[in-house]
Inverse folding.
């Protein structure tokens, strides 16, 4: 049974997931200058999953928490992959091109700082809230 | 929590609407407009009068150009550092400084003459100047109001004024040439031919007896700013040779030869077993590559076939600097007689294009092989990482190398790479009314940065090259390429932007020597320093465009 504070937390995560979904979808499909299937499909699926989770949480659906757990794991996984790949790209540019690549490396570090709150901090916080999956 | 979020959102919205309303320009009724009449002679204000002020107008000196600037709209400005500097549109807004009952006005022409636009450094990047220079505004107002700059800073309120300039017909202003506005839709071959002629004549005129260019010149004073770049010298020589071939003017061909001769006679030195271009111990391949590009154009255009010897020598040097993976080592230590394996901006693309062009003259298969491997590295393994679809280096030389090699060694990966690069660049290209300044066709990332000519030119050069490769591919494959129309539009828009900003003749009343500046390409609408590579990139882009028109008309 969920008390008033539980409801408030659920709604807060619902709003935050909705904002994150909007950010990811706008970022990928409006912000990125060119189309690239790997990023477009991943961003589309993740944005859709977060939006769906958000609706479930805001509506107080029985499976809302379970969906939030799945969405958080997927977000964490994709976020971790993106951050590792961006870090390696920044390292490659700095290492292979020296001063020429330094600007690109800085941009990639900046992007890591931008995606971290949405793809690492938010899902991690959500997983703390939903707790471990109960074993039947 | 939801209420708090809503409250924050509402406060943000309210703050946005209030600031937007307060700082927006509002039209000033004709009778209340600020009018400043200034007499200019040799680029210097020799008389000034604010209409309606208590000070009687001074007599206008003979031979001066009288220009009236009329404030058609106004808005308050924040006095906070940072906000103040970014509070004006460079080249369109002047500043009014009011202390008590007295007001000092700096018009657009006065700010241009004082070089006060785009000279404020606000970020770590020293090359990026923005907005208006606060110190110049405060110092000028202090002088007029009879107080110190610190007093003005402490007591003044500021307004920006959108000025319109009224000039006598005898003193035309940018963009007075031609009479209609040149856009991608109205651009003609005559516009481009005239622009090429004027740009090449400017370079020819600014070449001294030794064959050295006036490298960097301040248009308002006609004074040279110290410094020289031999890669850019070679690039300007290349454009002169191109222009000579297109416009058939002997004086331009002669200038190309003089500029080339100084490279050949004074800059070609031994680099171990090879010959390179250097001023001191470390030779960089950029000078050798661009000199090679210039020499090949001189031979190709039948200006002087004797440069074949130097072409062979420089191509050998470039090949000796190439690594097995196709990348080039950009420096050579002459004392130690060994390459230094570092990579600098542009040089790999320049070396690849140089070798591709050299092969046409030398017919040496090693030159072609080196160029092919250089291009493969540039578009393949050299630029392969997560995020390579969204972050690019400067690739205008790469795409020119693609085009040059296409008939001898077509590289589809390179064509795809260049199309992708242009798709990315087009997202940064301004359309109509997307910037507070005249930026249609330029490339940039927002209103705070003045659109510059050279990025438009270099991207235009590459767009023209990629377009030619696309046209050749279409001919070979028999299939139309959907990218063709977009590339054509990108190129036409970039050329129109550059043509509109070329000094033909420019705001002559603000120049010390208007005749010397005719045909020059400034850095931007508000940066009137003229560097030789600004003309090279613009000119080479336009020559490429003329080649495309010729190809389109061919049966």
């Amino acid at each position: 049974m969920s008390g008033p504070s539980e409801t408030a937390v659920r709604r807060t995560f619902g709003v935050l997931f909705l904002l994150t979904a909007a950010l990811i979808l706008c970022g990928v499909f409006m912000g990125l200058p060119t189309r690239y299937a790997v990023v477009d499909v991943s961003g589309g699926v993740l944005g859709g999953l977060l939006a769906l989770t958000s609706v479930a949480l805001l509506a107080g659906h029985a499976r809302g928490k379970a969906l939030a757990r799945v969405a958080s794991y997927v977000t964490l996984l994709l976020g971790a992959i993106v951050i590792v790949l961006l870090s390696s790209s920044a390292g490659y540019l700095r290492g292979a091109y020296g001063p020429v690549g330094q600007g690109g490396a800085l941009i990639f570090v900046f992007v890591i700082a931008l995606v971290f709150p949405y793809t690492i901090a938010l899902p991690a916080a959500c997983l703390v809230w939903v707790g471990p999956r109960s074993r039947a | 929590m939801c209420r708090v979020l809503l409250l924050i959102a509402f406060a943000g919205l309210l703050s946005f609407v209030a600031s937007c309303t307060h700082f927006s320009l509002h039209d000033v009724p004709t009778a209340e407009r600020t009018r400043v009449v200034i007499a200019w002679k040799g680029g210097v204000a020799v008389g000034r009068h604010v209409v309606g002020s208590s000070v009687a107008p001074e007599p206008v000196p003979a031979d001066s150009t009288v220009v009236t600037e009329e404030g058609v709209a106004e808005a308050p400005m924040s006095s906070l550092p940072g906000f103040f500097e970014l509070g004006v549109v460079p080249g369109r807004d002047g500043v009014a400084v009011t202390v008590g009952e007295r007001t000092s006005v700096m018009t657009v022409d006065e700010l241009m003459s004082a070089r006060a636009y785009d000279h404020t450094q606000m970020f770590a990047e020293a090359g990026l100047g923005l907005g208006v220079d606060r110190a110049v505004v405060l110092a000028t107002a202090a002088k007029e109001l009879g107080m110190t700059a610190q007093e003005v800073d402490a007591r003044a309120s500021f307004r920006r004024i959108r000025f319109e300039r009224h000039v006598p017909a005898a003193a035309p202003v940018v963009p007075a040439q031609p009479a209609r506005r040149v856009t991608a839709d109205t651009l003609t071959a005559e516009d481009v031919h005239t622009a090429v002629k004027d740009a090449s004549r400017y370079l020819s005129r600014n070449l001294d007896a030794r064959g050295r260019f006036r490298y960097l010149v301040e248009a308002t004073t006609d004074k040279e700013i110290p410094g020289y770049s031999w890669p850019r010298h070679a690039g300007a020589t290349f454009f002169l040779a191109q222009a000579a071939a297109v416009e058939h003017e002997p004086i331009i061909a002669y200038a190309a030869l003089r500029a080339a001769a100084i490279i050949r006679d004074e800059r070609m030195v031994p680099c171990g077993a090879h010959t390179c271009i250097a001023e001191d111990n470390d030779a960089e391949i950029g000078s050798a590559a661009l000199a090679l590009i210039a020499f090949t154009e001189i031979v190709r255009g039948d200006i002087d076939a004797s440069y074949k010897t130097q072409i062979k020598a420089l191509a050998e040097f470039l090949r000796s600097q190439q690594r097995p993976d196709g990348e080039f080592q950009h420096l050579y230590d002459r004392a130690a007689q060994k390459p230094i394996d570092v990579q600098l901006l542009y040089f790999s693309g320049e070396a690849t294009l140089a070798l591709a062009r050299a092969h046409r003259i030398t017919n040496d298969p090693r030159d072609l092989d080196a160029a092919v491997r250089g291009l493969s590295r540039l578009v393949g393994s050299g630029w392969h990482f997560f995020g390579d679809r969204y972050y690019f280096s400067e690739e205008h030389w790469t795409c020119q190398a693609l085009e040059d090699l296409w008939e001898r060694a077509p590289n589809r990966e390179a064509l795809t790479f260049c199309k992708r690069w242009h798709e990315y660049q087009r997202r940064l290209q301004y359309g109509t009314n997307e910037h507070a300044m005249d930026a249609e066709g330029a490339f940039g990332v927002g209103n705070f940065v003045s659109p510059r000519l050279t990025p438009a030119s270099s991207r235009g050069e590459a767009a023209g090259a990629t377009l030619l490769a696309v046209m050749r591919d279409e001919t070979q494959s028999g299939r139309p390429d959907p990218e063709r129309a977009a590339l054509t539009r990108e190129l036409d828009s970039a050329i129109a932007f550059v043509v509109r900003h070329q000094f033909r003749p420019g705001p002559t009343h603000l120049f010390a020597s208007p005749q010397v500046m005719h045909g020059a390409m400034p850095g931007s609408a508000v940066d009137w320093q003229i560097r030789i590579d600004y003309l090279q990139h613009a000119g080479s882009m336009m020559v490429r465009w003329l080649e495309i028109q010729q190809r389109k008309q061919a049966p």
